Known about the structure:
Oligomer: single chain
Order of helices and strands: HEHEHEHHHEEHHEHHHHEHEEEHHHEHH
CATH class of the largest domain: Alpha Beta
Helix content: 40-55%
Number of domains: 2
CATH topology of the largest domain: D-Maltodextrin-Binding Protein, domain 2
Mean pLDDT: 91
Low-confidence stretches: 5-30
Shape: globular
Strand content: 5-15%
CATH superfamily of the largest domain: Periplasmic binding protein-like II
Structural class: alpha/beta
Amino acid sequence: MLISKRLILLLIILLSLSSFLTAAGNQEAASNSFSVWDFKYKDARTNHVYSKIDRQFTNKYESVSFEHIGFDDEEYVPALRAALLAGTAPDIIWLHQGTEFIEFQSYLEPLNEFLSESEIDFRQDSLLSCETDDGILKALPVSFQGMGWYYNKELFRKAGLDPEIPPTNWNNFLEACEQLKQAGITPIATGNNRPLTTDFIKRSLITAFYSDEEIKDFFQQGRGIASTEFRIIMDFCLQLRENEYLNPDGIYRAYFNFAPDSFSKGECAMIIGLLSDIAHWKEFSDELGPDNVGYFPNLIHPEMKRPGAQLLQDAGIIIGINKNSRNKELAYAYLQNMYSEQSQKLLVEDLGMLMPMTELKLPSKEYPVLLNIEAALNNSGYDIEQFTPSTYIRDLSYRYDKLLINSLEITLDDYIQRLYDKLKLF
Length: 426
């Protein structure tokens, strides 16, 4: 009996020691393994900048096994969703503010205390976009974002259009597209595989046609879908497609892999692009020449609540920490590095990021188009994406947009009815 008790005691000690060693090994592995996921790193135009920022971090933490994985835009959310459910998600998570933040905010670490102890000085409106409804800060803004029309002044001249007076009036815009087409110039650079070109146009027009309160309630009982203004918007997008004002080579191509390049190469006269990060003022000016790029934020139509308004997200890209990360201190250090003076300089000067910092200085003298963008920010409105209640609804919209615009399989009446039927119970 005594031997049996000793054997049992020995087994308990061995099991405890084994558990301790396993836990210690896991903790060591955790502390020496750190990962970041995003939807930008895979793009060559952004990879070189983010790689430099990462090196600033890894030079300080040489013993850390660091991994930064980039995903194609369409792959990112499904991969992140699966990884979070499986418990294999990265330490640092990049998201878009709005629909993605709404879905994933419960997986993110609160950052109120981190921010209060740091010296990072954000614009207050951008921070508010990263808070939950009960005021918990769950991410930090990397950029503020918007969409608008860039145009090639030289191609406008060739088509007989005034390069200094953009065609902001609704009818003038369509006439300009036809004049460009007749001159043998493709009017609009397109990448409509998700789709994005017509989604960007649609979202920009919603900003101008509706008030902020109407945009907030747009999806409730499908009231926005059933409105007269929405029919005008989607009929406009359909006209662009049917009249071949959208570059036909880009209808089934991914926006970020095709549309910006075709505009930068002078193959198309206009593009609905972004204000920050990619497909934007710096990229286009560097390729076409700073004095050859014009900008206007939106079109003007008599039914609009805010004619010509600039679509603006106070936070476009946001970054957070996985609340189940075993590397919280490293994650805080990564965020601190992300917003260091050196990193900010890289993001603004090398990448053209419009960061939501209170003291951000923009190179307007070198890039005159920034003056147009800064003026446009004085008349801005919400982006419907910020109030899309789920990624399901967003993906549903993409699916029907493809049927209406890309393949022309359904009529505008069918499109509106199908969307309304799906949304009327929300």
